[in-house]
Structure formats: structure tokens, C-alpha cells
């Protein structure tokens, strides 16, 4: 399974012929997978997907963490179908926009207003623009330890893929490390009166140190800086109410997406009324062009979001994600230790948001060893660029994944003993998304 992909190979060539990069999201590109082992998906159901060659896979990280309930979830599809016959886009707001906004604010009680759009980058960039307008300041401070915030220039200019972005744009973004209050305070003091906002994920691969988020809240308030939580991932994986609900720290603005629509395109900017209204009609201040997207309030996507929130309300989705993740992490660590690669195949992160690291003989992150590991996973019927679970996976899926990981660890051990993963890579190594040249 997963090693003979003639139709996927042809389909991938079609994709590259008409789409730059062969995918509409760089993280889905064929360069992220071993040579000749980039399945092109036919369909998905629950926690499994099938490629165009007919191979079935247990899938992790579904939709880049967007499909937390599993593919084609019946309650979400029922809600979407109920809207399709009514039309999807009108010359004035539809009533479902009010219903969805009210439902969202019930779900995230720390926010007072919300505006929907289609993708996370629009929401985070709107938050940054709003913070700059509210404070009259130029600089944006982003957390250096969190991987991604936006496709827009203020963030992408700080990555190796900064072609086409003027230096003066990049210079308006500064960075701070996660978990270090002293470093944050020093940054605010160094740029006193210049920083409009600090944007970060409340948590990612590691939990916040005790008092860190509370301290950041106090610091930003004292320095007149807008605190923004990027809740694209944490929003429906840490808690249905967001990481802000879990940790008890209320930001000025927050952004949600991904699992909010279980695969349907919907994201949100939420926050304090006094800030959000600057982008509205009930303000005496100079107006901010906050979010104004033709398709931002498509009715079926808002219906999907409400259905997702209903499922989270009625079922213990968060508990399910954590239980599955705990089972997977424990199993992977056990088999890795049994084969003697526990210092090289490592599982990190919250149980609902697991990633894995592939380390070389010296304990350094290694793309060649990642290639070897992914190759063994795919060959065993596991499509897993991460170990991020969906609630649709079963305990049997987790146990089978652990068995496949055990096989992969056996090959990993051989490569370590040979001090060379190349014979098991099948070709060129997988590549990081953010790199200067293709």
C-alpha cells in the first residue's frame, strides 16, 4: 500500500502543470513527501482518505488541522445541505450572519464582537491593521517560536520566502521568544511607544510557563499594546472556547479558523467591542477597512460553523481528541524505546495536537530521516505529516498506526547503525516549506 502510485504520479504532474507548486497550499506540496510517494486524494470519510490509485490511509493532520470531527461529518453536511437550496450570497446580509455571530459569541464569551471571513490570513492581518489604527503605532511584534501567522507581507517578509516584499515592510515586524516575560518586557521597553500589537499562539508545542500569559496580558496593558491570540489551531483543540477560555486570559483580539468549519472555508476575527467598532459604522474615529470580503459570509459555511459548535457542545470532542492523542503518543514512545530510537523519533505537543521530530545521529532535526520515516508510514497505510488526530479516528486506527510506526522505527534503527539514511529514502529528501529556492 502507498508504494505504487501511478495515477497519483500522473495527477501530480497535472497539478504542477496548471498550479504553481502543484497545490493551493505549500504545506500540501509534493516536496513535503518522499519522491514518488505523494498520494493525490480521491475522497475522505471519517478519519480515512483514499487516493486516486485506490489506496486507503489512516489520515493525520486532516486539512492542515481543519477537519477535527472527521471528513464528511453527518451533522455538518446536514446543516450545509439545509442552506444550499436557499442561495449562498446576497446583496445584503442574510439572517444566518447574525445567528452565526451570536452562536460564536456564546461559544467564546471572552469576545464581544466577531467578523467572519474565509481564511486565517485575512483574519490575522485584519487584527494587525486594527491594532495599528487603534494605537497609531507602526511595529508588529510576532512570536518567533510559532511557525505561521499569515500569507501577508508583514509576516512572510520575516521568512526565507521573502521575495517580492520590500525591506521597509519587513522592518516593521519585530520578534519575541515564547515563554520569556523578561524578553517581552525588554522588547517593549526598547521600542517604547512604537509597538502596536503582540501576536502569538497562546500555546503550541509547549504549554505556557506558569504566569506567562497573565504576565503578557499585564505587560501589554501597561505599555498600551494590543494583545492578539492566534487561535486558528488552539481554538477547537485546546478547548471549544479557545485557549483563552482554558487558560483564563482574555486577549484584546483573537482569530479563529481551521476546525471552526470542519473543512468548510470560514474564519473569524473576534475581540473587544471598543476595538472592533473602529471597523464599523458606530464610531467617531477614523474608520478602518477591517474585513470586507465578497464570500466572507457564504451561508453554507456559516451553517457548517454553527453545526461544528453544536457538535462540540453536545459531545466531548476535546476529550476524545486528547484520549486518542494520549494513546498514540504513549504507543509511539513505547515502540521507539523498544527498538532503541527513542532519542531520534520523538513525539511532542499537546495530545490533541501532536507532531513528531526525526533526529539524526547527533540529535539534530533531519529532513533525510524524516523522508525515511514518512516513506515507511505511507507504505504502511498511514498518511501522517504530523500525528494530529481527528475525533473520527478509532482506537483500532491508533493501534494500527503504532504497529506501522514500529516497522518504521526498525528501518530507522538500521539507518542510524549505518550512519546513513540514504538507502532507505527512495530519492531526494523532503523539504521545509519556508526555503529561499525551490
TrEMBL record:
InterPro entries: Aminotrans_3, PyrdxlP-dep_Trfase, PyrdxlP-dep_Trfase_major, PyrdxlP-dep_Trfase_small
Necessary cofactors: pyridoxal 5'-phosphate
Keyword DNA damage: no
Pfam families the record matches: Aminotran_3
Ubl conjugation keyword on record: no
Keywords: Antibiotic biosynthesis, Pyridoxal phosphate
Listed NCBIfam families: PRK06209.1
Family, similarity comment: Belongs to the class-III pyridoxal-phosphate-dependent aminotransferase family.
Record-given protein name: Glutamate-1-semialdehyde 2,1-aminomutase
Species: Amycolatopsis bullii
Lineage: Bacteria, Bacillati, Actinomycetota, Actinomycetes, Pseudonocardiales
Amino acid at each position: 500500500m502507498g508504494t505504487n502510485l501511478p495515477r497519483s504520479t500522473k495527477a501530480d504532474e497535472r497539478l504542477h502543470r496548471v498550479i504553481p507548486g502543484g497545490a493551493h497550499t505549500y504545506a500540501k506540496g509534493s516536496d513535503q513527501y518522499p519522491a514518488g510517494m505523494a498520494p493525490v486524494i480521491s475522497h475522505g470519510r471519517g478519519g480515512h482518505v483514499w487516493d486516486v490509485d485506490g489506496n486507503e490511509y489512516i489520515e493525520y493532520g486532516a486539512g492542515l488541522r481543519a477537519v477535527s470531527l472527521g471528513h464528511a461529518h453527518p451533522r455538518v453536511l446536514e446543516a450545509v445541505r439545509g442552506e444550499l437550496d436557499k442561495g449562498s450570497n446576497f446583496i445584503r446580509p442574510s439572517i444566518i450572519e447574525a445567528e452565526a455571530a451570536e452562536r460564536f459569541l456564546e461559544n467564546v464569551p471572552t469576545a464581544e464582537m466577531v467578523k467572519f471571513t474565509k481564511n486565517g490570513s485575512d483574519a490575522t492581518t485584519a487584527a494587525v491593521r486594527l491594532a495599528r489604527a487603534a494605537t497609531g503605532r507602526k511595529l508588529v511584534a510576532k512570536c518567533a517560536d510559532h511557525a505561521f501567522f499569515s500569507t501577508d507581507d508583514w509576516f512572510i517578509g520575516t521568512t526565507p520566502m521573502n521575495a517580492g516584499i520590500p525591506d521597509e515592510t519587513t522592518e516593521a515586524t519585530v520578534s519575541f521568544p515564547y515563554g520569556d516575560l523578561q524578553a517581552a518586557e525588554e522588547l517593549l521597553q526598547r521600542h517604547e511607544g512604537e509597538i502596536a500589537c503582540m501576536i502569538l499562539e497562546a500555546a503550541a508545542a509547549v504549554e505556557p510557563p506558569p504566569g506567562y500569559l497573565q504576565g503578557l496580558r499585564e505587560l501589554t496593558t501597561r505599555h498600551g499594546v494590543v494583545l492578539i491570540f492566534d487561535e486558528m489551531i488552539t481554538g477547537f483543540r485546546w478547548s471549544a472556547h479557545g485557549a483563552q477560555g482554558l487558560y483564563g486570559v482574555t486577549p484584546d483580539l483573537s482569530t479563529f479558523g481551521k476546525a471552526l468549519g470542519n473543512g468548510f472555508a470560514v474564519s473569524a476575527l473576534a475581540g473587544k467591542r471598543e476595538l472592533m467598532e473602529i471597523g464599523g459604522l458606530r464610531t467617531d474615529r477614523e474608520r478602518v477597512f477591517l474585513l470586507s470580503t465578497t464570500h466572507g459570509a457564504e451561508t453554507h459555511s456559516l451553517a457548517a460553523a454553527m453545526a461544528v459548535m453544536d457538535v462540540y457542545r453536545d459531545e466531548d470532542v476535546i476529550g476524545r481528541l486528547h484520549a486518542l492523542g494520549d494513546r498514540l503518543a504513549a504507543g509511539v514512545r513505547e515502540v521507539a524505546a523498544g527498538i532503541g530510537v527513542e532519542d531520534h523519533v520523538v513525539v511532542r505537543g499537546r495530545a490533541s495536537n501532536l507532531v513528531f521530530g526525526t533526529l539524526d545521529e547527533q540529535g539534530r532535526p533531519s529532513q533525510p530521516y524524516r523522508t525515511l520515516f514518512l516513506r515507511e508510514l505511507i507504505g504502511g497505510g498511514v498518511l501522517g505529516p504530523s500525528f494530529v488526530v481527528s475525533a473520527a479516528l478509532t482506537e483500532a486506527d491508533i493501534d494500527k498506526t503504532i504497529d506501522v510506526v514500529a516497522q518504521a522505527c526498525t528501518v530507522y534503527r538500521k539507518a542510524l547503525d549505518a550512519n546513513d539514511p540514504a538507502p532507505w529514502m527512495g530519492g531526494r529528501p523532503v523539504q521545509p516549506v519556508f526555503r529561499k529556492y525551490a
